[in-house]
Amino acid sequence: MVAPQTEELRVEIAGLVDKLGPGRSSLIPILQDIKHRHRELDSETMQVVAEMLDIHPVEVYSVASFYAFLHGAPQGAHVIRLCGTLSCDFAGKDAVADALCDELGIGFGETTADGQVTLEWASCIGMCDQGPALLVDDEVRTRVTPDDARAIVAACRADEGRADA
Amino acid sequence: MSAQTIDSQGNALTYATIERDAGLRAALDMTRPDIIDAVSQSGLKGRGGAGFPTGMKWNFCAAEKGDLKYIICNADEGEPGTFKDRVILSRFADLVLEGMTIGGRAIGATLGIVYLRAEYTYLRPHLNEVIKERRKRGVLGTSIMGVEGFDFDIIVAMGAGAYVCGEETALIESLEGFRGEPRNRPPFPAVAGLLNNPTVVNNVETLASVAAIFAKGVDWFKAFGTDKSTGYKLFSVSGDCEKPGVYEFPWGITVAALLEEVGGEGAKAVQIGGASGVCVPAREFARRLAFEDIPTGGSVMVIGPQRDMLDVAENFLEFFVEESCGQCTPCRLGNPQMLKAVKLLKEGACPPKFLADVKALGQTMMVASKCGLGQTSPSAFLSILEHFGDEIHDRAPSA
Fold this sequence. Notes:
Strand order of the largest sheet of chain B: 6-5-9-7-8
Low-confidence stretches of chain B: none
CATH class of the largest domain in chain B: Alpha Beta
CATH architecture of the largest domain in chain B: 3-Layer(aba) Sandwich
CATH topology of the largest domain in chain A: Glutaredoxin
CATH class of the largest domain in chain A: Alpha Beta
Number of strands of chain A: 5
Helix content of chain A: 40-55%
Order of helices and strands of chain A: HHHHEHHEEEEH
Radius of gyration of chain B: 22 Å
Mean pLDDT of chain B: 95
Distance between the termini of chain A: 34 Å
Largest sheet of chain B: 5 strands, mixed
Oligomer: heterodimer
Number of helices of chain A: 7
Largest sheet of chain A: 5 strands, mixed
Low-confidence stretches of chain A: none
Order of helices and strands of chain B: HHHEHHEHEHEHHEEHEEEHHHHHH
Mean pLDDT of chain A: 92
Number of helices of chain B: 16
Shape of chain A: elongated
Shape of chain B: globular
Number of domains of chain B: 3
Structural class of chain B: alpha/beta
Distance between the termini of chain B: 53 Å
CATH superfamily of the largest domain in chain A: Glutaredoxin
Strand content of chain B: 5-15%
Number of domains of chain A: 2
């Protein structure tokens, strides 16, 4: 017997395949869409995607695990990505990192226990002239001070949906 | 989500003076071979960093048979310290799309794809708006500008967070739904690219320059720069300077002159070309930014006298350890060894033998890695070892 949530998942993925086409080129856009809405790519999801695109599940896992924005692990309702590259480092990213960790009570690569916020490092996000910079979901924040960082965390905590949803 | 675009400070950009559609109009009055010839005559070289002659690339692709060809705009701007493409896409997206359309005409492509990095997702609504508006204006779609049979459209595809996808064959792999692992070349994308069809991949700035060249003329463009490096270039300037931002200079400007413009005169070094570039010490500031001296995609990171050069090397090597695609051994295993050497040097505990081995390993990586990422990843560390040996080796062992 198929569990109801599995049936729901199949319908959702079938809809994406209809929209984007059944070719291999649809794989990443499909995974992006699912990751965006469900905040994770679990093994069941990857198997259904594989079946519908007629490729081996390990191919799906291989692609998902390759890309920084697709990796399978569950993420919080909001993802904060702090740029770790040189110019943001010069501009004081360590103090911002400390404030984020302190305020969230987690380290980089972790998600708060309430599932609200994930904290990650990002490779250069192209805001080098306005660092320290970070992404909150898909939005950019520049010249972030430790106080700003605390305010960003508070805003993420207060808001249940994604900033861009 | 609303369209977000992000500008930067800097100096006046020529792109702001280019009349929209003027380049496309001029190109559509020319034959396809003449369009490519004009690009070749302009001397335009790829603005992403590799510096391949754009006209030659287009010519290879145009010579291929086949009804299905693609032109891809590489907007996977991930080289550390580079942000000029973000500014171009924010302020001059029309010129980029116009350059793609001219390229599409020249090589006989019917579809253009902007491959936008995931970190720039906020730019996607803006780009889609500009594309929509161009379709409405008849400069995208069917019979563009009334030219019977010239059909060309553009879509935006999203990256998913991988620096290596800025490499054109890795980018194509990603578009096809695979891991972004670079391909063996040949065949080059111009012969067998996206879905095995002839494909041109050009950087954002290269395409904007194409639109400018056709709007203002080849001679106008060649009046800027040097004989071997024609035209002007955008530089992304960050780090220890008073006025970071996006600056336009003709090719051939010295590092010293650039530093003066941006208020970075006191620097002890400048990292040019990003993490994959080279570290230029103060005594070499008379060198020129040009393909014949220091070639670059435009990343200029100013390093002030207070900085520890080993911190710089460590930052870049952490980046490469993270971003190596893992496919080939020299890059996958070499970068962690380099990083280990930097950490030992910081502690004053790097055995001379290990350092010598790592230097040799760096040379091996430069010749034996499959793609530009692995080939260039040791450059910064090796140039720091070469130029800042005193600072590095005088370090006392930590207790």
